[in-house]
Amino acid sequence: MGGGTPDDSGAAVLLSLARMNKIRAIDTENDTITVEAGCILANVQQAARDAGRLFPLSLAAEGSCTIGGNLATNAGGVQVLRYGNARDLCLGLEVVTPAGEIWDGLRGLRKDNTGYDLRDLFIGSEGTLGVITAATLKLFPLPAAQLTAFAAVPDVESAVALLNLAKRRLAASLTAFELISEFCLTLVDKHFPQSRRPLEARSPYYVLLESSDAESAEHAQALFESLMAEALESGLVTDAAVAASIAQSKAFWGLRENIPLAQAMEGKNIKHDIGVPISSIARYVDETNSALAQAAPGVRMVVFGHLGDGNLHYNVSPAEGADANAFMDSEPLVNRVVYDAVARHHGSISAEHGLGQLKREDNVRYKSPVELALMRSIKQALDPLGIMNPGKVLP
Ligand code: ZN
To answer: How many whole angstroms from 112 Cα to the centroid of ligand 1?
Structure first.
């Protein structure tokens, strides 16, 4: 969203915290890890694993993104369904304020009702209120086994019904539930010809499920098989495959992770990161697909994402053979259709990517004046000189 990109005034200072990369402490009894903001996410995951614990924040950029950025943008990713987003995984922060003071809020407490929650104010503020320099994060037990399944579903409504069934049958071991449209896989087939589909037959939509089992691989397998048998019988699922090995599991995930790359290789596209209540998501997709087909005939919808969180990357590619630049000129119109539908369903125009520079104006259109005024007073109170990441989040 351009949240980390300075304006073109030439007067901005860029601050790198890359050298603040120490793991300060791991407390396995309290299940917490305290790390500096410049720690690469994958290194935090590894440090937790070395201590026999899981740090569950997981996203495609984990090999290069830093925990400070993850917290400043309240990152989501693929395991939010079970463990929550970056905000839910953070117990305490250390922050340098715009006045140059250090706030030591590195408390590893699950309960602390001593006034306004400053921690949650800084998380997701995209650097506009202060600089996060360290954090105390939650750890979890390492699962005994992880298993992936891939299922064909006739429509989004069935995918939502399958989600609810999977939640009931797998309970807390359901850790990911991703939706993928047939057109997404067509793009992956085309641009990653070495990838193989788990299922022969074509279906309008597919679901990628992951379970993290506390008992064993056999237990996970048995649960998945009975879930799929029940879903097949009731018609929610038309075909399904459970990964038989870690390599196969990785191949299933590879299909999902290659969608954004395949779409970029296909050419220019308009990206969205929308959130709506899970109960509205099927209607949202239907309504928006037909509204877009009217407003911009021929455009191709690339619908995929974290259905378990009500968060879709509802992306749009131009009509086959259409002029890409003319298509990009229609971006405001396309965004308007997509975001107006989000607003009708009481959703969010940015579920996990933030506002940065690209969505700050759109946000003003869809947030209430009361909410915007509260946001402006917080910014004014904490950063009266407007020196922290100027021009981001609020216009
Ligand atoms: Zn995502």
So the answer is: 31
Domain ends where: 260, 288, 317? Answer: 260
**pLDDT digits 0-9 by tens, 129-180:** 999 999 999 999 999 999 999 999 999 999 999 999 999 999 999 999 999 9
Q: Within 10 A of 214 (CB to CB), how many other CB atoms are there?
A: 13
Q: Are residues 276 and 245 in the same domain?
A: no
Rounded to 5 degrees, φ, ψ at 132 are -70, 125
- In the reported structure, the alpha carbon of residue 385 is separated from the centroid of ligand 1 by a whole-number distance in angstroms of 34
- For ligand 1, the distance from its centroid to the CA atom of residue 303, given in whole angstroms, is 12
Domain that holds residue 215: 145-260
Residue 295 in tokens: 């407003």
Which tens digits make up the pLDDT trace of 242-296?
Answer: 998 889 999 999 999 999 999 999 999 999 999 999 999 999 999 999 999 999 9
Q: Where are the extended beta strands (E) located within 114-250?
A: 131-138, 140-141, 145-153, 174-181, 205-213, 239-242
The rounded Å distance from CA 65 to ligand 1 centre is 14
> What is d(CA 250, CA 148) in angstroms, rounded to the nearest whole number?
9
